[in-house]
Design a protein that fits this description.
This protein is of the alpha+beta class. Strands 3, 4, 5, 6, 7 and 8 form a six-stranded antiparallel β-sheet that branches. It has a six-stranded mixed β-sheet with strand order 10-11-12-15-16-19, with helices on both faces. A hairpin with a 2-residue loop joins β5 and β6.
Length: 479
Amino acid sequence: MSNIIKKTGLILIGAIAGMMLSLNFSAIAKKENIEAIHPLPIEELRTFAQVFGRIKSDYVESVEDKKLITEAINGMLIGLDPHSSYLDKDEYKELQIGTQGEFGGLGIQVTMEDGVVKVISPIEDTPAFRAGIKTGDLIVKLDDTAVKGMTLNDAIKLMRGKPNTSIKITIVREGETEPLVFNLVRDIIKIQSVKSKMIEPGYAYIRITQFQEQTGENLAQAIKTLFAENSGAMKGLILDLRNDPGGLLNGAVAVSAAFLPENALVVYTEGRSPDAKMKLHANPEYYLRGPDEDYLKGLPSAVKTVPMITLVNGGSASASEIVAGALQDHKRSIVMGSQTFGKGSVQTILPLGNNTAIKLTTARYYTPNGQSIQAQGITPDVLDETDSGDEQRLREADLNRHLSNGKKTEKKAASETEKAALKPASDKKEKKEKKNKDKNKAPIEFGSEEDLLLKQAMNYFKGITASPEKKSDETETKS
């Protein structure tokens, strides 16, 4: 038995070493200025081979080599940060479908936390949203299968499926003494990327729910329609990015470019490889895919100067934070709401062949003034005064293994638990009573008459002319 394990280990070490050398030599061929190859970690590879051999010889059931290697790859990536992962054929296909804005499922943005699936945000107009799934809910069972021990991708696979099929989701929610059970029916999740309307004469409202392939074009059409509908001068425009989980980077650049001067810096990235260092400007080459005609050409000139307010909250992440940060840094828009999610890392999809790929974090996003979005988010110019309860929302900094901010002067923000501990007992009691009272209320539709933050933005346009208070040095970081 010992000899078998040793032979297996030697063969595996040789295979892994050969693969790593092959990958390194391939990289050298592509990059002339690559750093010297690091020596292979022979001791660690030997341990890996020993574990592999023990599983092959002693595990209670026979396990295929393919499964073991795939799970090892999964483990490597999952251990890095919450956003790096291995994509098998089905997952790679689902990722491509998702960016096109239509798929079969429930409509929940999720992450993995302490072995269970945690809800970041339900997507508007979906089964999960209508059923009352809330931010911070912990999904512990899918039908009769416990989530503990699953990968995030495995859980997502179970939640997605053919339309009109049902699934039972068991949730643990803060403040509830017993688990909550939801019976949901899957639906075609058609995400309308851009919604728009005139709130009243002179005041336009545009909501972006997610950044997809057609977001830039849809926004351009919405702007043209709104300005054509308004007979007089446009007095104000509200861009709503609340609960927008992000999406495609070129979509974020296109949205920013619609409101910023040409050539304005939108965002830049910093990473280890030369390919991870980018500066993206408000120019067609950074948001168009291929030789298509520039859909932002011919927009009303007033769209570059009309007073703007951008609405954000703890569900505004990634691409939506890029837009909010760019508009804020260029002083193009007042940002109003609550601290954003803080997902400021770049994931690159690297195909591996056989229709599989890895999603690997390769860089961090920085706003034009040098503020790192990662684990910090965008701090609004005007804070939400509507007591929306957004402080209870999960954020990037709350996730296990989250990537650091990347700044040497970074100060760790107090967790929501720590903040709550500092509040007076009376405040805590009032918050708890309000939370218990509101926990079963249907989610407020953004842009509706019940949307208090939208009303606050309109009041700001009409009556509050004072400049917003300057953010503290603790949250304002510039290079």
